[in-house]
Amino acid sequence: MHRLIVSAAVLITLVGTAARAEEGTMRVRLGDLNIREEAGAQVALRRIKAASSNFCGEGQVYRSVEGTTNIRKCRKTMTDKAVAQLGAPLVTALYTPATSSPTELARR
To answer: Which residues constitute the domain of residue 9?
Structure first.
């Protein structure tokens, strides 16, 4: 029952990232998905990534490498937090290979 409530929406609050200095909450709607099946987990991960891009301001034009780097850091931080907070094994498995080295996986 607890997992069902958590999967309805992932809410992440971020304070003071480099790309976004103000407080904010990233919302991802997942209640219509069965995240225990691969197809649902894939859609959930796409929604999380899209929400982090939107939250962190992707699409804005930055004329500096620093601005672009800050957006990438923000996106990764928000995606990491959302996947961790969701706690869905399939979503985590789909996300982890793209973000962790074999050494990091071995430490877990």
So the answer is: 2-97
